[in-house]
TrEMBL record:
NCBIfam families recorded: GLPGLI
Domain of life of the organism encoding this protein: Bacteria
Protein name: GLPGLI family protein
Xref: InterPro entries: GLPGLI
Amino acid sequence: MLEHHYYFVIMKEKLFLVILFMFCVNFNQAQNYKITYSISQDKDVLYKRLNENNNLKSSASYFKKMLENSRPIDFFIIANSSKAFSYKKKTLSTDATSEILRNINNLLFQKSEFYYIDLKNDNYVFKKSINSKTFYVKFQPKDFKLINNQPVLINGYKCYLAENKDDNVKLWYTKDIPLNIGPKKYIGLPGLVVKVVINETIIIQLKSIEPTTEAIKLMPKNQEIISFEAYQKTVSKAANALFQKP
């Protein structure tokens, strides 16, 4: 009788643990997170290139001053395991000259950027404006070759390297956080992107990740979506119009 009682207690505890585990898994999948990245330049690399480029020596001091004043700017993502909305708000003020002198990153990354990510259905759209007209553009994530190397520690996370040699991009992602998300088009890796290095000069790095009650913005319903190729043609047409005689 006593053994039967112990057996009942043990099975009850196991059932409780299973229910608790299932609840935690579902809760984590449904939980939204706010992920913040910083965007900056590798000043050491740029200083070296300025010193080595004879064509820029006359204006090197000016560029160096701008680099010295530059500060990282932030890029945000609201995400869960199935969808995400990433954005960078426009930061350039109307007083452009003083703003550039304070932080050249506000000029380099001045445009607002918005990305609607549906990981579950492999649907990716970004929002851009050209000549006051807004476009919703379907795109595909960047392709990366996963490097089977030993993990390195970045920001306290065990990270693995991936490369896209065509675009001269290296990034590091962590499997410690099961979110296949990252800044801009750097998504779809087997984990959270922790660091991106573009052309050896631009650095995008994970700054923080925390649970949030902020909702993930969805793309407006019945919104026309164009292909990336159509968007490129529109960009080229707008650029050519700048050089045409009135």
